[in-house]
Amino acid sequence: MNNGDPIHGTVQAVSCSAAHTFGKPNQAGIRLLAGLGVEGDAHAGVTVKHRSRVAQDPAQPNLRQVHLIHAELHDELQAQGFHVAAGEMGENVTTRGIDLLGLPRGTRLYLGPEAVVEVTGLRNPCSQLDRFQPGLMAAVLGRDEQGRLIRKAGIMGIVLAGGEVRPGDAIRAEWPPEPHEPLERV
């Protein structure tokens, strides 16, 4: 557990796609818009934009405005023989140096000089991963010692404060006040 000290990391890559594509091309920079998400990204908006969520209820709030994946997952997958690079699993921000999956709900991520993203939950991996590379979905799922499912395909968040985010930018994570709530799928 964190003792309240900020956690630091870096932005490795940023990605955006105006279309509902599985992967997102890397960019020199992206602009986060408060309450909306990534400017120009298909998933930006006040209400949910992920197709499966829209089918359930198009009026539900968009808790999935920004998708972040830790580059350490890419390293792990490459060691298993998968060929995965930043943006190819649909993330907007690829990070390094922060245990994204270990953050509690409500953690604030300060990205670059201005942007702030509040962590809302875990990305729920879907079958599109296997269409990208067979076996990839199973590789981003695991079980803990109690047999509970572990989702490793990144986290989701909402934009509290907008701003430019570029590769090389610093990331500072500040945990919310206790009691901490573990991340669940959103």
Series of secondary-structure elements, N-terminal to C-terminal: EEEEHEHEEEHHEEEEE
Q: In the CATH scheme, what's the topology name?
A: M1 Pyruvate Kinase, Domain 3
N- to C-terminal separation?
A: 22 Å
Flag low-confidence runs. none
Architecture (CATH level 2) name: Beta Barrel
- Average pLDDT metric: 94
Q: Please, how many domains?
A: 1
Strand content: 25-35%
**Total number of beta strands:** 13
**Main sheet, how many strands, which sense, barrel?**
7 strands, mixed, barrel
Q: Classify the secondary structure makeup into a structural class.
A: alpha+beta
State the shape.
globular
- Helix content class: 10-25%
Task: Quickly list its features.
three-stranded antiparallel beta sheet, alpha+beta, 32% strand, MoCF_Sase_C, M1 Pyruvate Kinase, Domain 3, 186 residues, single chain, MOSC domain-containing protein, seven-stranded mixed barrel, globular
Q: Helices, strands, pairings?
A:
Elements: E1 7-15, E2 26-27, E3 30-33, E4 37-38, H1 51-56, E5 66-70, H2 71-79, E6 93-96, E7 108-111, E8 115-122, H3 128-132, H4 136-139, E9 141-143, E10 149-151, E11 155-161, E12 163-165, E13 170-174
Parallel strand pairs: 5-6
Antiparallel strand pairs: 1-2, 1-6, 1-13, 3-4, 3-12, 5-11, 7-8, 7-13, 8-11, 9-10
InterPro entries: MoCF_Sase_C, MOSC_domain, Pyrv_Knase-like_insert_dom_sf
Domain MOSC: 25-174
Pfam family, one: MOSC
